[in-house]
Amino acid sequence: MIAGPHLFLSGQIPADKEGNLVEGSIANKTEACIKNVLAILEEAGSSIEKVFKVTVFLDDMANFAEMNSVYEKYFAHKPARSCVAVKQLPKGVPVEIETIALVG
């Protein structure tokens, strides 16, 4: 959703283009979420460098360090971030990432 100069991305789960869930570690699943974010940003005329707010949802905070090791490779510019533990995520995935970015 584009509103003025802002692009609001819905939470991205670790799924491929066909909607199949990605298997593997929390690192693999975090990378899949971020790759989905990257694809949407590009399609909307934005980029990862224009992301200024990120919310990460984890079903277990024990996964924070592993998730963060992947996260910080992509979000090196350190946008504002919240990380929230939740009881359950869609389709039973362990991680979901949503962002707000600038467009144009």
From TrEMBL:
Segments forming a coiled coil: none
SUPFAM superfamilies in the record: YjgF-like
GO molecular function term, any single one: deaminase activity
Entry GO terms, CC: cytosol; mitochondrion
InterPro entries associated with the record: RidA, RidA_CS, RutC-like_sf, YjgF/YER057c/UK114
Domain of life of the organism encoding this protein: Eukaryota
Family the entry assigns: Belongs to the RutC family.
Protein name: YjgF-like protein
Originating species: Mytilinidion resinicola
